[in-house]
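Quick one, T. Sequence first:
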Amino acid sequence: MVVNHGSNVTGSIAPVEEIGRLCRACGSRFLIDAAQTAGLVPVDVEQCAADFLAFSGHKGLYGLQGTGGLYIREGADPSPLRFGGTGSNSESDEQPRFLPDRFESGTRNGPGIAALGAGVSFIMERGTGTVLKHGSALREALCDGLAMVPGARVHGPRAPALPTVSFTVEGYDGGTTAQRLSDEYDIAVRVGLHCAPLAHRAIGTFPQGTIRVSFSCFNTEKEVVAFCAALAGICGKR
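Structure tokens:
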């Protein structure tokens, strides 16, 4: 069983502890995809009965693209994704059996790992709770602002949720709106299916997708106000 801990489309957070108990009861291996939640939402792999937990480094951990990590429960032994030189056991023609070399073929991305370490330290200093609280406040402010835009609809739960908002505006093309936000107001958003067409099918926004706004700890409430004003300006004139 593979479950997205947090949705990159709606911001919804999955009940991984409950899912983990069900998986353990039926003898299924359980992998938590924490790409969207690492650095934001704490997760206890023991409490969740997780066999694996995967995360990317370039999102909530503020690292570089091409970095990430995989937790493997002791006793779980998946097959490596790829085979090749590891810098250890060079005399052997076979992949090393010991960790982490068994899953780290090729030359490691040293600069990327160092940058990820700096990102993790940055988050640890502030605390995941503080970062999430800040993002949640901005999300709430944006949802309130979108409620004032005629035809705007937020797709996803109001709370609890990640600091991500997906929305559509009735009568307005998402791609055109996003382009105008960029060209006229210097505001960058993500538009479309967000690499998750099945999620959009589930919420009824396929194939057009949605406009998605994602917040980091560097965003401010002033920027939310500016965004809502820009959107109101666009949707007030076709």
